[in-house]
Design brief:
The chain is mainly alpha-helical. Among the domains are: 106 residues, Glutamyl-tRNA Synthetase, domain 3 (Alpha-Beta Complex); 55 residues; 88 residues, Orthogonal Bundle (Arc Repressor Mutant, subunit A). The strands form 5 sheets. A 3-stranded parallel sheet has the order 1-2-3. It has a 3-stranded antiparallel sheet with strand order 4-5-8. Strands 6-7 form a two-stranded antiparallel sheet. The longest helix has 16 residues. The termini are far apart. The protein binds glutamic acid. Glutamic acid binds next to loops.
Amino acid sequence: MGASAKTPVVTRFAPSPTGFLHIGGARTALFNLLYAKATGGTFKLRIEDTDKARSTKEAIDAIIDGLSWLNLDWDGEIVYQSEREARHAEVARGLLETGGAYKCFASAEELEQMRETARAEKRPMRYDGRWRDRDPSEAPDGAPYVIRLKAPQEGEVTITDAVQGAVTVKNAELDDFVLLRSDGTPTYMLAVVVDDHDMGVTHVIRGDDHLNNAFRQLALIRALGWSEPSYAHVPLIHGADGAKLSKRHGALGVDAYRDMGFLPEALENYLLRLGWGHGDQEFFTRDEAAAVFTLEGIGRNPARLDFKKLENVNGHYLRSADDPRLVRLIERRIAAMLARDLTPQERDLLLRTMPHLKPRAKDLNELAASSAFLFRQRPITLDEKAEGLLDSAGRGRLAALREVIAGVGEWTTAAIEAAVRDYAEREEIGLGKLAQPLRAALTGTTTSPGIFEVLEVMGRDESLGRIDDQVGKTA
Ligand code: GLU
């Protein structure tokens, strides 16, 4: 089974456009891409847009946007399944000629009866094969028909799945499923098999909700005498509580993760590590992952989505992201907070402050929020906690400290810190007792980067001005 060693690997991601690229889909795409990269193969994209009501341009764009944001770039042109209906029908009709398929004239009422019998016997509905060996000439003239696969009825089929291992199903459990509907449109089962074949797909890597379909698809592939792909059915992502992923758990489009302030490389690394591992290495560049990626390395148990973990991973990538990029990524968020754009000077201030801001944030929204104090107009408004630090004692300390800071010669973090420390020692005041009111006055909050760094990046005039605004206040 499987493609011969010499056939170049072709993988594909085949999403049905449902309005967004959900994270399970993103992970499937990533595995397909990595496997292609790992084997020097090709990764293709096929949009399964045969459901015309749901497959709007917006839904397709959402998938393409999501893939682009995650840098999951495919090779060659996108294949649109809806454009290939004529080819699908041609294959079904060809199979009719070779006897691998047959026309079924069973009426809607007959099928309903089969369904009812199945319900009564508490088993899944299976078409009973009533037209399998009957001559089509027995059907009334011009009666509508579907084309069904003449599936094997005896024996069993085993799929050796790279993730699930050997899985066997009895042929008696699979019925003669429909390939072509009476209106001439292909079924999903037919379309997938024909497209995978025509695209030269050697490895089908997809969610394990498709494992059952694989047995039917394989029966069709064999009837057509086509080469069989290798299969890897990847466990779905579940919520932290182990239940099937729902909106409540974060079964959202990747665009929602972008809005939550995750970096694409962080989401990628998180999705990669979710149910796949290589030793205890935590972080991989794409090239590193591709160098060691195997399908067998994918775990068989459902992966659980863990936001805390994702945030930690994101924090890691934020810390190592380069500063101009981070400025670009949070600029719009800051503008929304301030209800105005940043000036070039402010952008420069943000860039200079970034090394102090980024070690403290777990996502881009937090990063943006933590920088907002830089751009507030004097006198700045203090939050409640900061206000609390500036009681009369705090304000008294701040007033004395103002003179120390004003006397600093060279306006650098080191010089400011030395002067303040020296003063704290002389006056026998704990550094915290000084830093807290200072932070409140300068940032209007009680959390910020190191206060000496804040002083340096804000500059002498702005810093002293903000201190004066608080010192000058009457209690
Ligand atoms: N279009 C299917 C889906 O979005 C995937 C089909 C396949 O990978 O074979 O679930």
